[in-house]
Amino acid sequence: MAEPLKIVEGRALTAQQKKDLLNRLARIEGQLRGVQKLIALAAEPADCEAVAQQMAAARKALDRSFVQLLTASVVTHSEAADDIDDARAVAARLAALLDKFA
């Protein structure tokens, strides 16, 4: 089994936020391994529906982790803002991320 990732202290996210995201991603990784097994074992046309259902669930879980990342970033970066102008700059950067990736 892979060794757990070392969580680095910094200003991007809190250690707890990182831990929560890493746990969520580990669950998604398990879902994807399950999808791979379903594909490998697919023998009947109906098996494709089960694969599609599990792929959709994994995709939705990954979308939720993306929202969790951005939500954590909003909280952490806003709290660290020195003043209102800094908070506005943080908000503008996060809005740009949403526009680019969502």
Provide a descriptive summary of the structure in words:
The chain has 102 residues and is mainly α. The protein contains 3 helices and no strands. It is elongated and about 60 Å long. GO terms for molecular function: DNA binding; metal ion binding.
Shape: elongated
Q: How many strands?
A: 0
Helix content: over 70%
CATH fold-level assignment: Methane Monooxygenase Hydroxylase, Chain G, domain 1
Give me the secondary-structure category.
Answer: mainly alpha
Write the H/E string, N to C: HHH
Rg calculated over all Cα atoms: 18 Å
Low-confidence stretches: none
Topology (elements, then pairings):
Blueprint lengths: L14 H27 L3 H35 L4 H18 L1
Give a brief rundown of this model.
The chain has 102 residues and is mainly alpha-helical.
List keywords for this structure.
102 residues; mainly alpha; Methane Monooxygenase Hydroxylase, Chain G, domain 1; 3 helices
